[in-house]
Amino acid sequence: MRPAEFVLGLVLVLATWLSVLRTLVVPRGLASRLTAAVTWLVRVAFDGVASRFSSYERKDAILVGAGPMTLVALLAAWVVLFLGGFSLMFLGANAQGYTQALREAGASLFTLGNVSTPRLLPTVVGFFAAGTGLVVVALQIAYLPTLYAAFNRRETLVTTLQSRAGSPAWGPEVLARHQIVQTLDNLPAFYAEWERWAADVAESHVNYPVLMSFRSPDPLRSWIVGLLAVLDSAALHLALNPSSRQSEARLCLRMGFTSLRHLCGAVGIRYDDDPRPDAPLRLTYEDFLVGIARLETAGYPMERTPDEAWPHFRGWRVNYEEQAYALARFVEAVPAIWAGPRRGSPEAMLPVRPPNRQPETPDVS
Fold it and tell me: Three-state SS across 37-102?
C-alpha cells in the first residue's frame, strides 16, 4: 500500500468528476478551470490558424470546427485525467509498478476487462474506474442532443431574419424591408418573437457556453449579428416613431441587452452595467445617417428628424453596443456594418438583400 499515491490519485479523480458534473450536469453555467483551459487552448489554436488568412470566408471555414473540437478535446482531457488518477490509485493499492497500474486503469476505465488481484481495494478501484468510463461517455452522448437542440432553435429564427434584414443582418434593413413589402403591422409580433428568442439564448448559452462557438451554416449569418440588428431596428423604431406601438419593441430591447450581459458574464467579458444614456457610442452619427438614408429610400415613415432621433437611439444603443461588439469579436462573427471591428480589420460587408421583383417592375431588385 502506498497511501500518498492512492490519495493523490483519488483527489485527481474527484477533481475531474467535479469538472464533469459542473460542465454536463449542473444547469447553471458553472464552468470549471479545466473546461475553461481546454476551451481557451482550442480557441487559441483555431484563431492562430484563421488569423493567417485575410478572407473572411476562409476564416469562417476554419473556425466552424472550433465548437465541435472543443467537445472532443474536453472528453479527451477528462479521459486522460481519469486515466492518470486511477493509475495512481492502482499504484497505491497494488504497488506493482506504474506500467501495471496504467494497464489496469486503462482496461477498467475503457471496460475492456482485466484480471486484477483478488484483494478488495484494487477490485473496488477497478469497479469505480469501469463505472466512471461508462457514465462519462454516456453523459457526453446525452449532452450532444441538448446542445444541438438549442443550436437548432437559435438558428431557425436567425435564418428567417435573412428575408427581413439581408445577409449579414443590419438594423435599418429590418425596418426598410418591412416597409417595402408593406408588413410594418407585423413588427410587434416580430419583436415579441425575438424577445423570447433572446431569453432562450441567454438560458442555453450561459449554461453551455460552448454553443457560442458554434457557427451558422451560412457564413454570412451570425446569431450575435442578427440579435444586434434586431435591437438596432427596435431602437430606431422607438427613436423615429414615438407615437407608434412600442411595448413589444421596448421589451425586446430590454431582454436583448439583458441576454447580452449574461452572455458576457459567462465568458468573462467585462462591461459597464449602468451606462449613461448620453455616453458616447462606437457607432458615429455619420453611420447613423447612412441607416436613415436607407430608410428614406425605402419610404419608411419617420415622425422625428435624424437630429431629433439620434439622442433617443443613442440612449437605447448604449445599453447593448459594448457587449454586442465584444461578443461579435469573441466569436469572430461576420464583419457586418454597425457590428463593430474584427481582428485583422476586415472590411465590413453590406447586406445582400433578397430581390423585390414585381410584375410591373420585374428587373428591379
Answer: HHHHHHHHHHHHHHCCCCCHHHHHHHHCCHHHHHHHHHHHHHHHHHHHHHHHHHHHHHCCCHHHHH
Q: Which three cell numbers stand for residue 274?
A: 449602468
Q: List the grid coordinates of 187.
A: 413588427
d(CA 300, CA 313): 16
d(CA 216, CA 222) in angstroms, rounded, equals 6
> Tell me, what DSSP letter sits at residue 215?
P
What would the pLDDT profile of 178-215 be if each residue is shown by its tens digit?
998 899 999 999 999 999 999 999 999 998 888 999 99
**Reported pTM:** 0.86
| Residue range 261-292, pLDDT digits in tens | 999 998 889 998 889 988 889 999 999 999 99
- Tell me the DSSP string of 311-335: HHHHHHHTTTHHHHHHHHHHTT---
Question: 191 and 245 in contact (C-beta within 8 Å)?
Answer: no
Residue 255 region, left (φ>0) first, then alpha (ψ -120 to 50), else beta?
alpha
Count H helices, E strands: the chain?
Answer: 14, 0
Give me the residue spans of the domains in the chain.
Answer: 3-142, 161-330
Gap between the Cα atoms of 300 and 311, Å rounded: 20
Is the torsion defined by CA of 252, 216, 324, 167 positive or negative?
A: negative
- Give the sign of the dihedral formed by CA 342, CA 347, CA 348, CA 351: negative
3-class DSSP assignment, residue 114: coil
- Distances from the Cα of 348 to the Cα of 27, 52, 80, 267, 285, angstroms: 37, 19, 43, 25, 17
Number of Cβ atoms within 10 Å of the Cβ of 25: 11
Nearest-CA neighbor of 339 among 220, 209, 179, 181? 220
Cα–Cα distance, 235 to 227 (Å, whole number):
12
CA-to-CA distance for 29 and 27, rounded, in angstroms? 6
